[in-house]
UniProtKB/TrEMBL annotation:
This is IrrE N-terminal-like domain-containing protein. Residues 110-215 form the IrrE N-terminal-like domain. Pfam families: Peptidase_M78.
Length: 220
């Protein structure tokens, strides 16, 4: 894997996203490369990557669905009971998921959000380690938004695209996904409504996520 030597962002062309997802599963859930299954992503986040997963509201407008925290420090979160933002201290290696905002994401699936934050930890922690040398009081974190804002940096854009691209490939690894699609009778140009629902259940992801993955694999 190549890194930008100044920023420590990994260079991952989109045609290598499948390979990165497979490398992740090889390390943390080998079984998923052998047979179609729902990836136990929360278990992997907690027990394999050693991340603390917390479900907490992050914004009033539900426009931030997840955060990964790379250094100890203060993070602003939203308290819906008081209708106020509040500063809280979180530890490094914490994932924050906003359960309300997740419903607004394109893929509307908690597992996809967990996988997305796992990719940030797996591939982007060196970048944030570099950043943490500049200020110590504020936690270093990435904030994942339902809609990308125009003012996010080029670095953040690259890493966000990588996490968005790799997360569904972890949850639906190419070879076993294609095998399962064949088993449930996915046919090119058919509506495939029931077969898609079965795949969504099998991999524990949303139907929309299955549809996108089928397209990527050239099966629809
Ligand atoms: Zn993200």
């Amino acid at each position: 894997m190549n890194y930008n030597i100044n920023s420590l962002i990994p260079y991952i062309p989109t045609n290598e996203y499948d390979a990165v997802a497979e490398e992740f599963l090889h390390l943390y859930c080998e079984e998923a490369l052998l047979r179609p299954m729902a990836i136990p992503i929360e278990h992997i986040a907690k027990n394999e990557l050693g991340l603390d997963v917390k479900y907490i509201r992050l914004s009033e407008e539900c426009d931030i669905y997840g955060m990964t925290i790379f250094s100890d420090g203060i993070v602003e979160v939203y308290d819906p009971a008081e209708c106020l933002y509040d500063s809280k201290i979180f530890k490094r290696k914490t994932i924050l998921i906003d359960p309300e905002a997740v419903k607004k994401t394109n893929l509307g699936c908690r597992n996809n959000t967990l996988a997305h934050e796992c990719v940030h930890w797996y591939k982007h922690r060196l970048y944030y380690k570099m950043q943490s040398y500049t200020s110590t009081r504020q936690a270093k974190y990435c904030k994942c938004r339902v809609e990308n804002l125009p003012n996010i940096t080029e670095d953040e854009n690259i890493m966000e695209a990588q996490a968005r691209g790799i997360a569904p490939r972890i949850l639906m690894p190419r070879a076993t996904f294609i095998e399962a699609a064949d088993q449930v009778g996915i046919k090119c140009k058919n509506e495939n409504r029931d077969a898609i629902a079965r795949l969504a259940k099998m991999f524990n992801v949303s139907r929309q996520s299955v549809r996108i993955r089928l397209n990527e694999c050239g099966l629809l």
